[in-house]
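User: Show me sequence and structure for the first protein, then do the same for the second.

Assistant: Starting with the first protein.
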Amino acid sequence: MSERVGTLTRRNLLKTAGSAAGAAALGGCLTGDGTDDSPSGELSTAFGNCWMCSHNCGQKASVRDGTVVNLTGVDGHPRGSAGPDTEGTLCPKGLAQLDKTHDPKRIKEPHIRDEDGNLQKVSWDEAFQYTAERLVEFDENNGAETFLDATSWAETSIFRTIWRDLYGSPERISRGIHVCAGPTFVTGGMMGVGSNNRVPDYQNSEYIIAWGRNVLNSFAGQFEAKGVLEAIENNGATLVTIDPQHTITAQKSEEWMPIEPRTDGALALAMANVIIEEERYDADFVENHTYGFEAYREAAAEMPPERAAEITGLDADQIRRVARGFAEAAPQAGISVWTGTAQAGNGWKATQNITALNGLVGNVDRPGGLRLWKYPATASFGEVCEQDYTNRAEYKEPALKKYDEYSDYPVRHIEGIAHNLVPEMVENGHVNGIVCHHDDPLKDGNAEAWIEAVEAMDLVISIDAYWNGVSRRADVVLPEATQLEKDTLGTGNWSAYPNHKWVTGAKAAVEPQWNTLPDFDILTGIADAMAGETGNDDWTIFQQWDSHEEFIDDQLSTLDLTLEELDSGETNYELVEEYDYEQWRDDDGFTFRFDLDQIDSFAKAAEEAGMDTAPEWIPPGTYGDETTEEYPLEFTDVRSVFFSHGSNQPHERLRDQFAKRNRLSGEDYRGNYLYLNPEDAAERGIETGDMVAIESKTGSGELMAVVTQRARPGFVTAEYGFGQTSAITTGEDAREKSADGMNTMMLHDMQMDPITGQVDRHIAVDVAPAGGD
């Protein structure tokens, strides 16, 4: 083993990770210092696919002497432009790859935890061997079925083969369903349109509703914001924003509906009420291509606009006006919906009621409406793997479905796991280890319990570019190369090309920096070590490929493409297949479902949760928090164009830009901000720039206040993803680490959607000046 570095142990983790100063010391202690001289050689061009929010906007990189010196977008890129012959651009997250690639704060070499509990540097061979030994030991002592795969952000598809098929774990936490927008994804699938219910055909639309989405500021690729603006300019489209906050998207909208939080389901039913009562719906589509309309009609009849106005705080005339505008523009009318309506305890019904509007006006897979986007037909792992192997997880049942301890959770009928329940599963001995890949679940909900759970696990493996709450606590830390340092293949569905499937690919723009490796090489390195440690030839299946590029070429073989061909010329994408609208006409099995009583798993879950299978109104607090006299404010966290998940927050330039946007760049503070209305601020003696304490019934923390009319009275928000994931303290100790902001999920406990396990991020809180009255 190499020389031990530092004295980080499990016993002192909370103390060391607790402050920004401690984090800086940790980075220096474990990774060393030193930067390269400024590059001065010839300039060359390379490509990349941005993975900061996993949506693959194309990047063109200028490289000099092995250093990325500039990044721009790729013109005409499916995700990074408005379509053919348009400029490709990057948002601040995408541009941050320039910082991230050569960031001296990155994890620079592998580490393992020794017998004394210290993390120490080792070689890659030592790290792989140690990982294999610990995985074999874990399987012998606990069973591989108790090892949790939390690898949502891997940029290669083989992680599922590694942890599920070969190692044998059926436990996988899905970021998309459990902590992003489970009700949106799963209801879309059950209703017949899949997760396509998120993204409409923007450019062909004449009426766009951004429902709980700030689509001009937080998007799934540049094509979204550009598509909305193109629709307004070219089609004269109407943009409507439904959001408690006056966002950038609301600012550009013809209609802003400042809805009371968590009442979206009532608004959707009231719009349906208007459309049905005034016979503005598509009767032919409803009659011939839907199921359960009468149950839907009954639910809508109970929510006239006047009743919805009392619930939502909106004007009944505005509700009617928007409903009529949407129906009149249909089918060239689309709803953009994602996390905003899903991250609430009653988010399932909100999403069901919103999605139902598409079936009502018949905009399904028609230009400008809800497009049934399609992925390209790249080859699966099973199709390209030349070696047979045993799937060790094939007949293993996830603990949530297997054990009686979880019989009170309706989610077990729909999902195999739920983020908030993992600490309970650890306590019950049903989860004993975890692998996290470029993710920090300690910031995704139920944070304090998650921290204790990770501390209690027998084996923690972190594959990441940065030190975070998991990697600081890990037994194995494997430093991953960033996106511009690896070969990548991106495939997607929605984009600026509504009639084409597409792929995007890029070779590494620069060599892996320091002693890091791409994720494909890390995972195959673990597999090779497991082959030697177990003697099981199944683990040798990756040896048929000498590189990730060869593996990608096999994936692309169904499209008669290679990575070399994608990453050549002036672009790094290819439009590969064309497909038409109204695909449901040729699909005998297609049915748009208003009522979900035919889906047995949902019927069971709904019955246990006390909800109907048809659309209905479920008030806030039925599931999750209600505000009280002690906690009179409703809090939720939000996303912005600057940050997305844990790996962006370390970059000082983004923090500076964020502070500048909030007109607080003169302050030393570079954390997240709490946005609150002047009425709520005045009542508490709070002004912009003050440090404030926010408290729920289960947690507390401090961050800086921004007083703004854009915030709705009684509703406060903060940016997601900041803060050290350690115990929150008060007084001077808290102020020392306040510059790093706050992990907002320290306020959170068990609140969740009962059907999908989606974390409910609406929390009852109170706010006061820091330090007391």
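Switching to the second protein now.
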Amino acid sequence: MTSIRSRLQHRLNPLHVYCRLRSLGMAHRTAVMVSSCWERALYRHILS
């Protein structure tokens, strides 16, 4: 059984976000920029 924290770490991981954006049809460069911003602005602060 996985914890809520580990599930959040997976779902909110910038690489996971990038993959989901690509699967929704977003261009590579845009998805990289969005996931990079996501990592810097939110991810590091949420799960640190």
